[in-house]
Specification:
CATH class: Mainly Alpha
Distance between the termini: 40 Å
Strand content: under 5%
Order of helices and strands: HHHHHHHH
Number of helices: 8
Length: 206
Amino acid sequence: MTSSADTSITGFFVRYRTIDLVTIATLGVAFGVVYWAWGKLYEPISALAVFSYPPSSGLLGGVWLIAGVVGGLVVRKPGAALATELIAAAVSLLVVGGTQWGFSTLASGFFQGLGAELVLALLLYRRFGLVVAACAGALAGAFESLYEWTSYYADWDLPYKLAHLAFFSLSGAVVAGLGGWLLVQALARAGVLDAFGPGREHAREV
């Protein structure tokens, strides 16, 4: 006989299916290419007058957070958000030309993925709506901003750092959270996610 404790443990550490692993890898590679391309556009865009207030560059960071949010919303298992974000960061580093940030890209991928993962973990991987997605994106942005305080902006004073954190979190909530949630819904409607929670939920609605 299986005890309730055993059942709880088994329920949390869910076994990954092959399709889960393939999907995490596919999403990671796809978003990794996007991350690489956005990295090439980042410097000329951040140099525009509209971003003359240095901390406002955090508004451009949400694009780099979307892989973890989407991976977590689709696969819905412990570690999926973190793994997807890390793979995306690694791919962006390995694409021809790499990124201007070098191997620190992997550290960013870890902190960004960890932020999204923690939100889903706090909800025991049972809630995946728009608000949850926005919170995951916002915390991913906050974690990345905190990392950048020491890695890139150590000379900034505290008001600048807090403003950067606010801008980054806002971008994470809107671009990665809302944007990622809308992307997952679109993929579900297209029938791409029939083997996952979003696809099954869409099927029940139609």
